[in-house]
Amino acid sequence: MKRVLLSVIILTGFHYLSIAQKVSYEIDAVPKLSFDSPQNLKNRSIAWDENNLVLYVAGIDSLHHTHIEAIGIQGNLLSEETFEFESKGIWFNDIMGLLEAYDVDDNAIVSFFLDANGLFESNEYLTRVENLQEVNNQVFVSYNSLSDHYAYIESITNMIIELSPYTGEIEDYIGVQLPADKNGYLLDRLLYSGIEDYPYAILDKKKTLLLFISADGTDFLKVSLPDLQSSIDAYGIFSNHLLVYEAKSAKWKAYEIKKKAL
User: Fold this and answer.
1) Reported pTM
2) How far from 248 is each of 30, 87, 124, 231, 251, CA to CA, in Å?
């Protein structure tokens, strides 16, 4: 089936932070938001619709179908649907006004049909862009709304690949010289940060820090996580918040990412 519409929740407005000089960030230890979500899902990802203040959380069920919940700013469930494809990554395309996802089954970008409030109209979806990644090498895809690109990281070469959201053609290769770290990094999931000069982020393998990556791949910001590593089973960034899924409690929790006081 093909047709849906998605939104993501915003708590403070999705600020695009420009950095005239290098600054530091920290993540609050106390969550600003917490809400329940089904336990029996994998490959979870999130999206945020700033206009409707709707947060979308997605995961794959036992039938390899994508289940998406639309969540309000109080953590309340607004709408949910299940779609007959397996996804790796959802996001809200602000320029087109579409909730989109990466369809692993067809190696394509799909969009959903939403009403004016960002709620699902049906479990149909529309295939927009095909042949996105090399077959058998599909990783999570994100959307950079500042540069208007789909993006993912190629784990063997440490290259960030940026693609046109209109044709799917590769428009840029960004070489990333990752800083030495004994833990290594999780390179199957590239996050879009919303920070203008450091638009991408990845998590280290021990889940103790976020590494923010500059637009040209040459500069980095390391941000330590609160004592969360034992409970991070899925994660994403939206509206200056780190959203973490804790399987033990079956809850998503949002922690604010903010500038450190100098």
Assistant:
1) 0.89
2) 18, 23, 32, 7, 8
